[in-house]
Design a protein that fits this description.
alpha/beta, 9 strands, 12% strand, globular, Uroporphyrinogen_deCOase, uroporphyrinogen decarboxylase activity
């Protein structure tokens, strides 16, 4: 395995001094890149995911074409519910559909904590091939969904702005909800450990819907399970926790032992640092929609963001995934402005 030529991301996560701020973008492997769109039009989502050559090609694209400091494996958080026994459809321009959602205790009988090597081997194959293809150019990020966010899809059966059915499930059947959350947690720990064994240098836990919960419910239905995952992983590789909208829990998330915290664009950098403390790396928090602004405006806003966070214990990123309609040269401007800052 080639030694890393660019280890800025890992150094930042470990709290080491970096020569410049590392930068990558959530959902950078696809959506907005013309070469990705050609593959999307030719192959279904799971064909792209489950073919290691295709997943590798997509993962490496933004490294080659945009110049980011890390690659994140092309996959989806919903491969975990699929591996646990649920049918998952990912429909282009519509979103996820789980046609037979969890409604009660009887539905848990059709789920299992799977052998991840058997059910998710294609992710590990893609990681190994990507690692070889990158040849040490940049670190490789693995990832999984936070148990609460996965429960949202498994119970709601589709995307939602409120996930009211998922919340009602937790409030009305808390014992069953916690049983399901623990099954997801156990699967995710095994999944992330296997990703690291296959070549991931760090892992990120995505809690896309953590911000829908009150602070008390976030601890009850989300953070206690994220804490289990971080505890299981933190001595194996650096971990990043990204809970969109859950700024109120930054202090508690920092206390999990995670190496990094993702920050969305709805909180000032200075306030995020105040809440999280000085002993953890922050990542974020550029509004993805702002990449649609004129390039001079993007450059100005990036510099403001960097000034707010500082250049140490910080990873420049978006506050959520990149949008499909972002011009590639705008994404490049974001990355290049970060790279040039302070030089």
């Amino acid at each position: 395995m080639s030694a890393l030529k660019n280890d800025l991301l890992l150094k930042a996560l470990k709290g080491e001094t970096v020569s410049r701020t590392p930068v990558w973008m959530m959902r950078q492997a696809g959506r907005y890149l013309p070469d990705y769109i050609k593959l999307r039009d030719k192959y279904s989502f799971f064909e792209r995911c489950e073919n290691p050559e295709l997943a590798t090609a997509i993962t490496v694209m933004p490294v080659d074409q945009v110049g980011v400091d890390a690659a994140i494996i092309f996959s989806d958080i919903l491969v975990v519910p699929q591996a646990m026994g649920m049918e998952v459809q990912l429909i282009e321009k519509v979103g996820p559909l789980l046609p037979d959602p969890i409604k009660g205790a009887h539905d848990l009988q059709r789920l299992c904590v799977p052998d991840v090597q058997e059910r998710l081997h294609y992710v590990f194959d893609a990681l190994r091939l990507t690692k070889k293809t990158l040849d040490g150019r940049v670190p490789l990020i693995g990832f999984g969904g936070a148990p609460w966010t996965l429960l949202c899809y498994m119970v709601q059966g589709k995307g939602s702005k409120t996930f009211d059915e998922a919340k009602a499930f937790c409030y009305q059947q808390p014992a069953i909800a916690h049983q399901l959350l623990q099954m997801i947690t156990d699967t995710t720990i095994a999944y992330l450990k296997a990703q690291v064994a296959a070549g991931a240098d760090t892992v990120q836990i995505f809690d896309s819907w953590g911000g829908l919960l009150s602070p008390q419910d976030f601890e009850t239905f989300s953070l206690q399970y994220i804490r289990q995952i971080v505890t299981a992983m933190k001595d194996i590789c650096p971990t990043i926790v990204f809970a969109k909208g859950a700024w109120f829990a930054l202090e508690d998330m920092a206390a999990t032992g995670a190496h990094g915290l993702g920050i969305d664009w709805c909180i000032k950098p200075e306030l995020a640092r105040q809440f999280a403390g000085s002993n953890i790396t922050l990542q974020g928090n550029f509004d993805p929609a702002k990449l649609l602004a004129p390039i001079p405006e993007i450059e100005k806003a990036v510099k403001t963001m960097l000034k707010g966070f500082g250049t140490q214990r910080y990873i420049a990123n978006l506050g959520h995934g990149i949008l499909p309609n972002v011009p590639v040269d705008h994404a490049k401007a974001f990355v290049e402005t970060v790279k040039a800052y302070g030089n």
